[in-house]
């Protein structure tokens, strides 16, 4: 449907406002005077790339949308910002300790991503968190800095524990975090048999409340962590086995995407007191690991909504540092090195999915020519249409009444058709007339008053469906699985008024395969403002902030394989260089993944 008459006074700043770019995109994304999205990969430290020029340049190298563009400089900038925030907090609160983070590999296991984080994090001895044996192997092979931490979470069988012990022998800093009570005996046994032990941590099952999508990560029903009794038993068991000297770390994780800072503060206080108690029980300790959860402002609203956070990165660091200091200093306990396992906050921004639109459809246009002796439902619809056209006000109750009538007469036409009183062409006329009524009503809806759900639904029924060249299940699985919102917007034509409203349907043959929820200043909307497609011209849309979790959670539904991915780095002189090209799956590869033999199929 047409939003309004195409607004000739439209400007790029109105596009920025419409899509919330200055709220969620700052400091990495903006719009230039050509109406193109611009990427500032180093944030406010200078340098920018026109995303449309980049997409065109990549097309010349046979890399076409859908394309995952990974900006390595953004990854580095996120790392830099995280450390700068903790440095500022440490000096602000005169904290007599330091911050030493790790990247949870599960967040994005791609080799180039993990390698890049480890390499650029060396100056802070930035480490890795592994949640499985395979991730532990990645961590062991990549960490060269012997000061960097290697936090070992996840299910630990004997092999896992032995690998961690070996890592310590090789001079690494593996800390095996006990998350389930039965792990303690396996650790003690392996240590006794090998005559060496890993460093040990305990994951606390906190009682503090939590909110948000992953709020069930705390409390007595949480999947991981030890309650207070189990912690005391663990300390006693370690002491008995002569391993209490290896207990160095307390860990907690209250869920990803913490949206409310108050929740974090409660958890920090509880964990801070447990930390103090563990030192009093004789454990040397030294590290407090606040887990992941540092959130991302996907909708740019700075609120505690599920797609946002009511705090900044600096607020987060300040609260961690100040609260732990408050717990330790008054009781004469040396403050710990603070560890966080921030995944989403590091990896979300750096990856942009650009996809093209293959076509669009919507309800048919046009009013059927009147005919002699039209059946009653058709005549009634035609009369309703005339009545709507004669309305000289945007009185909502009159519009609502007219829409109710149109629906009634359309249903009458269906009933009459079913009973054999209407011919096919007459039924088609009724359908077409009801669409025309809907369009006329929609054009009269006031923009400054709240609209009843029935009439809002009418806008949805008239909206365009844009066919997106992607699989939602492959490239944006969280939009389908957990209703995650990502900023989605065209990356060009932003100097033009986006005069249509639409949703995206993907290429899978699944009715769930769509993007139909969009950010809207702290709430969400089901239709996005888009531009009309032009013959022979591409229409490119970007999905932003999807660098965390989407790639590995993506699945092979309908056998859509991974898209091509490129790693881009800002080059001197304002240009860019392509560091890596990771080709997407071929049809043969996805067929093989399902045990088919592509050659014999051919
Ligand atoms: N640490 C643990 C134990 C986790 O389970 C997770 C993910 O939920 C993370 C860290 C990373 O969390 P986030 O990506 O929210 O920072």
Structure description:
The mean pLDDT is about 95. The chain has 21 helices and 23 strands. Strands 4, 13, 14, 15, 16, 17, 20, 21, 22 and 23 form a ten-stranded mixed β-sheet that branches. The protein has about 600 residues and is of the alpha/beta class. It is about 40% helix and about 15% strand. Pyridoxal-5'-phosphate (PLP) binds near residues 153, 345 and 548.
Keywords:
602 residues; alpha/beta; 10-stranded mixed sheet; 21 helices; binds pyridoxal-5'-phosphate
Topology:
Elements: H1 12-18, H2 21-24, E1 29-31, E2 37-39, E3 49-50, H3 51-59, E4 67-71, H4 72-92, E5 102-104, H5 111-120, E6 127-130, H6 133-142, E7 149-152, H7 158-169, E8 173-178, H8 183-194, E9 199-203, H9 228-240, E10 247-251, H10 261-280, E11 287-289, H11 313-328, E12 337-339, H12 344-347, E13 351-361, H13 376-390, H14 396-418, H15 424-444, H16 453-462, E14 464-468, H17 472-475, H18 477-481, E15 488-490, E16 500-505, E17 514-515, E18 518-520, E19 523-525, E20 528-530, E21 540-543, H19 550-553, E22 564-570, E23 576-582, H20 587-593, H21 598-601
Parallel strand pairs: 4-22, 5-6, 6-7, 7-8, 8-9, 9-10, 10-11, 11-12, 14-16
Antiparallel strand pairs: 1-2, 2-3, 4-13, 13-14, 13-21, 15-21, 16-17, 16-20, 18-19, 22-23
Bound molecules: pyridoxal-5'-phosphate.
Pyridoxal-5'-phosphate binds next to helix 12.
């Amino acid at each position: 449907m047409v939003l309004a008459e195409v607004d000739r006074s439209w400007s790029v700043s109105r596009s920025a406002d419409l899509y919330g770019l200055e709220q969620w995109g700052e400091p990495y994304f903006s719009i230039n005077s050509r109406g193109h999205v611009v990427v500032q990969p180093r944030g406010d430290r200078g340098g920018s790339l026109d995303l449309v020029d980049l997409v065109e340049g990549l097309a010349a190298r046979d890399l076409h949308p859908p394309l995952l563009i990974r900006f390595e400089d953004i990854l580095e900038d996120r790392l830099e910002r995280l450390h700068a925030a903790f440095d500022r907090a440490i000096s602000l609160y005169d904290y007599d300790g330091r911050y030493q983070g790790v990247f949870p590999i599960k967040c994005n296991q791609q080799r180039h991503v993990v390698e890049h984080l480890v390499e650029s994090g060396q100056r802070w001895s930035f480490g890795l968190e592994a949640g499985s044996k395979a991730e532990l192997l990645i961590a062991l092979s990549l960490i060269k800095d012997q000061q960097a931490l290697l936090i070992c979470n996840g299910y630990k069988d004997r092999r896992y524990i032995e690998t961690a012990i070996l890592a310590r022998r090789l001079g690494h800093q593996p800390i095996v975090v006990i998350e389930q009570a039965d792990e303690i005996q396996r650790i003690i046994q392996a240590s006794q048999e090998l005559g060496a032990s890993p460093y040990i941590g305990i994951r606390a099952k906190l009682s503090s409340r939590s909110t948000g999508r992953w709020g069930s990560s705390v409390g007595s029903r949480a999947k991981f962590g030890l309650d207070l009794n189990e912690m005391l038993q663990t300390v006693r068991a370690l002491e008995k086995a002569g391993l209490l000297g290896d207990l160095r770390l307390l860990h907690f994780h209250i869920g990803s995407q913490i949206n409310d800072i108050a929740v974090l503060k409660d958890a920090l206080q509880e964990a801070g007191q447990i930390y103090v108690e563990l030192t009093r029980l004789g454990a040397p300790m030294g590290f407090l690991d606040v887990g992941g959860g540092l959130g991302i402002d996907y909708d740019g609203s700075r609120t505690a909504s599920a797609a946002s956070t009511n705090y900044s990165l600096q607020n987060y660091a300040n609260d961690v540092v100040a609260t732990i200091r408050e717990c330790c200093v008054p009781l004469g306990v040396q403050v710990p090195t603070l560890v966080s396992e921030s995944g989403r906050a590091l990896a979300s921004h750096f990856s942009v999915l650009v996809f093209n639109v293959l076509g669009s459809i919507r309800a048919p246009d046009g009013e059927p020519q009147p005919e002699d002796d039209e059946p009653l439902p058709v005549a009634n619809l035609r009369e309703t249409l005339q009545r709507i056209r004669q309305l000289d006000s945007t009185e909502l109750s009159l519009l609502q009444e007219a829409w109710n009538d149109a629906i009634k007469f359309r249903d009458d036409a269906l009933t009459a058709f079913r009973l054999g009183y209407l011919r096919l062409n007459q039924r088609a006329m009724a359908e077409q007339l009801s669409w025309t009524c809907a369009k006329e009503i929609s054009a009269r809806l006031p923009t400054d008053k709240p609209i009843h759900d029935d009439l809002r639904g009418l806008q949805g029924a008239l909206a365009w469906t844009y066919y997106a060249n992607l699989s939602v299940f492959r490239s944006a699985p969280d939009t389908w699985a957990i209703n995650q919102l990502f900023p989605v917007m065209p990356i060009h034509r932003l100097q033009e008024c986006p005069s249509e409203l639409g949703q995206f349907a993907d290429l899978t043959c699944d009715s769930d395969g769509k993007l139909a929820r969009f950010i809207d200043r702290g709430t969400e909307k089901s239709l996005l403002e888009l531009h009309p497609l032009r013959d022979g011209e591409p229409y490119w849309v970007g999905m932003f902030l999807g660098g965390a979790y989407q790639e590995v959670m993506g699945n092979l539904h309908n056998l859509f394989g991974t898209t091509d991915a490129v790693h881009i780095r800002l080059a001197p002189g304002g240009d860019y260089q392509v560091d890596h090209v990771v080709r997407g799956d071929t049809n043969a590869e996805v067929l093989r993944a399902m045990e088919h033999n592509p050659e014999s199929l051919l």
